[in-house]
Amino acid sequence: xxxxxxxxxxxxxxxxxxxxxxxxxxxxxxxxxxxxxxxxxxxxxxxxxxxxxxxxxxxxxxxxxxxxxxxxxxxxxxxxxxxxxxxxxxxxxxxxxxxxxxxxxxxxxxxxxxxxxxxxxxxxxxxxxxxxxxxxxxxxxxxxxxxxxxxxxxxxxxxxxxxxxxxxxxxxxxxxxxxxxxxxxxxxxxxxxxxxxxxxxxxxxxxxxxxxxxxxxxxxxxxxxxxxxxxxxxxxxxxxxxxxxxxxxxxxxxxxxxxxxxxxxxxxxxxxxxxxxxxxxxxxxxxxxxxxxxxxxxxxxxxxxxxxxxxxxxxxxxxxxxxxxxxxxxxxxxxxxxxxxxxxxxxxxxxxxxxxxxxxxxxxxxxxxxxxxxxxxxxxxxxxxxxxxxxxxxxxxxxxxxxxxxxxxxxxxxxxxxxxxxxxxxxxxxxxxxxxxxxxxxxxxxxxxxxxxxxxxxxxxxxxxxxxxxxxxxxxxxxxxxxxxxx
Length: 487
Ligand SMILES: Cc1cc2nc3c(=O)[nH]c(=O)nc-3n(C[C@H](O)[C@H](O)[C@H](O)COP(=O)(O)OP(=O)(O)OC[C@H]3O[C@@H](n4cnc5c(N)ncnc54)[C@H](O)[C@@H]3O)c2cc1C
Fold this sequence. Notes:
This protein is α+β, with helices and mostly antiparallel strands and 487 residues long. It has two domains: 5-62 and 114-153 and 163-280, Butyryl-CoA Dehydrogenase, subunit A, domain 2 (Beta Barrel); 284-463, Butyryl-CoA Dehydrogenase, subunit A, domain 3 (Up-down Bundle), CATH 1.20.140. It is 49% helix and 12% strand. The strands form three sheets. A six-stranded mixed sheet has the order 2-1-10-11-7-6, with no helix packed on it. Helix 4 packs across helix 11 (284-313), helix 5 (103-111) runs antiparallel to helix 7 and helix 11 runs antiparallel to helix 15 (418-432). The chain is globular, with a radius of gyration of 25 Å. The structure holds flavin-adenine dinucleotide (FAD). The site of flavin-adenine dinucleotide (FAD) has 20 residues, from strand 5 and helix 16.
C-alpha cells in the first residue's frame, strides 16, 4: 500500500502526546509549530507515488506495491535504484530532512537480511524482524529511531544513587515486556508512526535490561514526545525563514512510562552485546548511513549553489581569490559525490545473496561529512559578508508601498532588485546562520554519533591485514647480509 499525503497526515492524527514545554499539542498536522513540516513529509508521500516518479520510487513484487527504499538489493542496479530513491527524496527537501521516511527503512532492510542472527538472540526474534519489515513495507510506515541514551548517566561507574532514567525492561510476561524510561533523540518522531528503540552506543554488562530493542507506536499508552524548541513556530514568514518555515523535522526526547510491548515487536532482549552488534553484523548500519550520505550531498549542492549566488550578488565572482574558493567548494562536492558512487560501484556481499553498499566508503563519507560541514558553512559565511545585516528587519518593509520604494531606491544594485537581494540573504542565513542553521550544524556533527566514533567505524572496517601483509611481503623480499664484509 502506498499512502497519499492526505492519508499520511490523517494517520498521524492519532491521539499521541506531544509536549512543547508545558503545552500539549492536539494535532501536529495543524499546529503552528509543526504543520508545515508535516506537509513537507506529506509531499514526499505524494511525490513518491506520482506518475513521473513511480517507476523509480516504487517496486512491485508478488502483487504488492511498496516504496523502493524497502527494496532488498541483490545487484548493482538495485543499489543504484535505492540511491536514486534517496536522492529524489533529498532533492525535494534540499537534504534538510535528515530522518526522512527512507532513513529507517534502510536500517530494517539491512537487519532483515539475517533473521538467523535474531533467532540466536532468542528463538522467534527472526520471525519478528521478518514480520516487522513486512509490516513497515506493506503499510508505508514512517519510523524514527531512538537509539541513544540520556546524557550524563552512561559513565556512572561509581554506582548511580538512583535508577538511571534510561529505557529498560521492568517486567515481562507471556504477552511481552513492559518498558520504562527515556530515549534520545527522536528526530522527526513528532511526524512518525512508530519509533524503533535500541542502542547504537555500547551497553555495559550488568545493564541487560537496557539492551531492549523494540518498535513502539508513538500513540501507544504511556508514550510521550518532548519536542525541543520548534523553529517553525518562530519562523516569521516563508520569505524571512524559508527553510525553518517548511523543513524543521524537530528532535524530541521520547519518554516511555510503563509501556507494554508485545513479543512480536521485540528484537533484542537481555543481550548487551547484540543490542549494538545487530546493526554492524548486518548491512543495516551501512545502508542507513548511505541514505544519510546521499541526503548530505543534496544539502551540499544547495550550500554550494548559495555560495555561487552570493558571489554573483556581491559582484565578486570575477575575482581570482573568490574563484579559488568556489573551485575548492566544487572539488569538495565532487569528492563526496565520488565517494557515494563508489559505495554503489564497489558494492559487497556482506550477507550471502545480497549486494549492499561498500561499507568502507560509507564510513569514509560519514567521516568526511562530519568533519567538513562546519568548515564549508564557514567558507560560505565569509562570502556572505555583512549583507544579511544590511537588510531591513523583515519582509514587512515590502508591504508598505512608500517604504518599499525607498528600499528599492537605496538597496538595489544594477541588475538586482533590493527584494531579490534580501530574499537570497534570508535564504543563506536560514541555511548557515539562523537558529535552524545552528541545529543543522549540530545535526551534521552528531546524527551518526560523536566525531571520534566516525574514526572507529573506519578503523574497524579497514583491511589492516592486507596493508600490513604488504609491509611483511616487502620486508621479506630483502634481508641483512651478515656474511658480507663492510666495504
Ligand atoms: C540534531 C541531532 C539529531 C539527532 N538525531 C538522532 C536520532 O534521530 N536518533 C538517535 O538515536 N540519536 C540522534 N541524535 C543523537 C546522537 O546520536 C548523539 O548526539 C550522539 O550519539 C552523541 O551522544 P551524546 O549527544 O549523548 O554525546 P556524548 O556521548 O555525551 O558526547 C559528548 C562529547 O563528549 C566527548 N566524549 C564523550 N565520550 C568520549 C570518548 N569516549 N572519547 C572521547 N571523547 C568523548 C566528545 O567530545 C563528544 O562529542 C541526534 C543528535 C543531534 C544533535
